[in-house]
Specification:
Jelly Rolls; alpha+beta; Serine Threonine Protein Phosphatase 5, Tetratricopeptide repeat; 2 domains; 382 residues; elongated
């Protein structure tokens, strides 16, 4: 009759042997009880110390089959793969980092250091991979340029240089539209006329600011709805001077800015009863951060015409970050995650308004106008 091994004694003595630096004794003891999952990681460590990579891999593979989120095992598998399989090593390291998310500060310092080392390896491998792909294209006579910008974007996604961001409107999603953050300015033949009016619009803005001072908060608590979960709710650090609201000129504001209103009238804004267009001067004070969020619709684009720019200001749409240049409009899809900040010491102001997405056909725009009007009518009757 076979007698069972004293598992606890073998486990403790095996670990003690490793701590003394006796990997041979540790491997012998731990191999005898490798059916116990607790023995697998120290066994892998013993095998690694003895340059028995095959044995280390076997133990780690068995352990990860039982505990796929075992962070030290994932890191050790990555370490074993670094010389022969860089992409495989990166995959193990990425899994370790993903499993450590949310608990990083609670991990032992040595494991945190291993995770930092893993992140450094992933970054270096990504750079090597990107350079290899670019060199391969160049050797085939293909050089990336503005004409192949989408190819470059795809490479950035492939190598993990940027994340994938998609439209996630909070209210209404229209299918089949391209996932583009910032749009190319050449797509909008009306932009030059708008930008040519920058000086006149800027003069009207300065007159408004001289008379009114601060603008009302961009995000205000409504009287008949729950408070929006925005850190800048009722905070004039992000201010708004509305010119058009819910499709109607704002009395007391619009007539003070005739040049601005005329410039807006020449743009392809949606015109929907009780809903659109909207247009305003958007003010961002120093030290203010508009946290990442999504707009309500993906059937529109947002236009920023910078009127007062400041250093250390910028905005991110998806994976791309841009600053504001006086009189040079930005056009972007606000249904993709975006944020903005003013880390400088002076205020930033843009003219902000909405336009139809250029991909929407006239029949689609007509149908959407009726549909959105029906939404407002249903809300009103409720």
């Amino acid at each position: 009759m076979a007698t069972s091994l004293p598992v606890e004694r073998y486990l403790n003595e095996g670990i003690a042997a490793l701590r003394r630096g006796d990997a041979t004794r540790g491997r012998a003891l731990l191999s005898a009880i490798e059916s116990d999952p607790r023995a697998l990681f120290p066994l892998a460590f013993a095998c690694g110390a003895l340059r028995d990579e095959a044995g280390a891999r076997r133990a780690l593979q068995r352990l990860l089959g039982l505990q796929p989120d075992h962070i030290p095992a994932l890191i050790m598998m990555g370490d074993l793969a670094t010389q022969t399989d860089q992409r495989g090593a990166a995959a193990y390291y990425q899994a370790a980092i993903a499993n450590a998310a949310g608990q990083r500060d609670a991990l032992p310092p040595e494991l945190q250091a291993d995770l930092e080392r893993a992140a450094g390896f992933i970054a270096a491998t990504s750079r090597d991979y990107e350079a290899f792909l670019h060199d391969h294209l160049a050797a085939s006579g293909i050089r990336l340029s503005p004409a192949t910008r989408r190819v470059e974007h795809a490479i950035d996604l492939l190598t993990g240089k940027i994340e994938i961001f998609v439209q996630r409107p909070s209210s209404f999603y229209f299918p089949g539209l391209p996932q583009i953050g910032f749009f190319d300015r050449s797509q909008f033949d009306w932009l030059p006329a708008l930008e040519a009016a920058t000086g006149d619009i800027q003069a009207e803005l300065h007159a408004v600011m001289a008379r009114d001072g601060d603008f009302p908060p961009y995000v205000a608590t409504p009287a008949d709805r729950p408070p929006p979960p925005n850190p800048l709710r009722d905070d004039a650090s992000w201010g708004a001077f509305h010119l058009l609201r819910a499709g109607t000129p704002v009395a007391g504001n619009a007539e003070r800015c005739p040049a601005t209103m005329a410039a807006l009238a020449a743009t392809p804004m949606p015109r929907i009863d009780q809903r659109a267009p909207m247009a305003l001067f958007s003010l961002l004070k120093p030290g203010t951060h508009i946290t990442p969020h999504h707009g309500m619709l993906n059937t529109r684009l947002i236009v920023h015409l910078p009127l007062i720019t400041a250093p250390e200001c910028g905005m991110r749409v998806g994976a791309e970050t841009r600053g504001w240049t006086l009189g040079e409009a930005l056009v972007f899809d606000d249904s993709i995650e975006h944020e903005a900040w003013n880390r400088g010491d002076t205020t930033r102001v843009v003219l902000l308004f909405e336009i139809w997405r250029p991909e929407l056909t006239e029949p689609e725009r007509e149908a959407l106008s009726v549909l959105f009007g029906a939404v407002e009518a249903f809300v009103d009757q409720g």
